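[09:14] KT: can someone run the structure on this one? pasting the chain below
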Amino acid sequence: MAKFKKTKTELKSQREALHRYLRFLPTLELKKQQIQAEVRHVEQQLHTAEEHRSAILAALRPWVKLLSGQRDLLAQAARLVDLRTTSGNIAGVLVPVFEDVLFDERAVDYYATPPWYEDAMEAVRSLTRLEVERAVLARQRDLLAEELRITSQRVNLFEKVKIPQTRENIRVINIALGDAQTAAVTRAKIAKAKTEALVSGFLGR
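[09:31] RB: done, structure tokens below
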């Protein structure tokens, strides 16, 4: 425990500190609740994206043998040329926000490709888009989780350390000031008694 002076000035300082902690704690607690809610929301979005991904893969399963012969063509269809994101503010945390992806749109000779190629191309692009979106959402979750960890530490610091410690400091100072005041009154009474005794003795001569 840090040392502090047991004076009226220090008592005032400790009371002001306690007031600041008590005023700031609800703000921290509210921020913690907001971030927790946002983390749950992002995790739900990740879950939804995973379900969507699983549905697309299930739809592609009957085409596996057909697709295996067109890997190079499909890889070209899924080639990204740009990823578009913006920055968003979620509960005071700056995070990347997915907007869209752009694919290589070089011309395809549909007369030279299988009749199912367009559907397969759209499915592969949807998978690619989902993977990118999931990566951005995962980054959001990680940033929010880190901010939640820091905010939770601050809440605990105020609740379990700063506020109890400051209240104890105030209690100790009040006791010390009370003891000092009692001692001062006692000394004053003793001094008064001695003075009265001296005066009485002098007058009694």
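[09:33] KT: thanks! The longest helix spans residues 117-203.
[09:34] RB: yep, looked fine to me
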